[in-house]
Specification:
The protein is an alpha+beta fold. The protein is built from three helices and two strands. Strands 1-2 form a two-stranded antiparallel ribbon. The N and C termini lie far apart (62 Å).
């Protein structure tokens, strides 16, 4: 018999849940959810540190425009 863990989905998925929503899941399911949460947080920290922005715009020198916008708060 596996151990049940009580999880608040609002803490893990605050974008989708506005109120507390508690569910009970198996320990191995919780470990998997927690592992992917840590992987996503590490990826977000890495992107923020290297200032890597993903955009669908197809303009030249997009990264320089983004940097200039951050420094001067004006548009080109």
């Amino acid at each position: 018999m596996s151990t049940k863990v009580r999880v608040n989905l609002r803490e893990m998925y605050s974008k989708y849940y506005n109120q507390d929503c508690f569910v009970e899941v198996d320990q191995d399911v919780y470990d998997t959810m927690n592992k992917y949460d840590h992987i996503f947080a590490a990826y977000k920290r890495k992107v923020d540190y290297h200032k890597g922005y993903i955009s669908l715009d197809r303009s030249l020198f997009l990264e320089l425009k983004k940097l200039a916008l951050m420094l001067t708060k004006t548009y080109f």
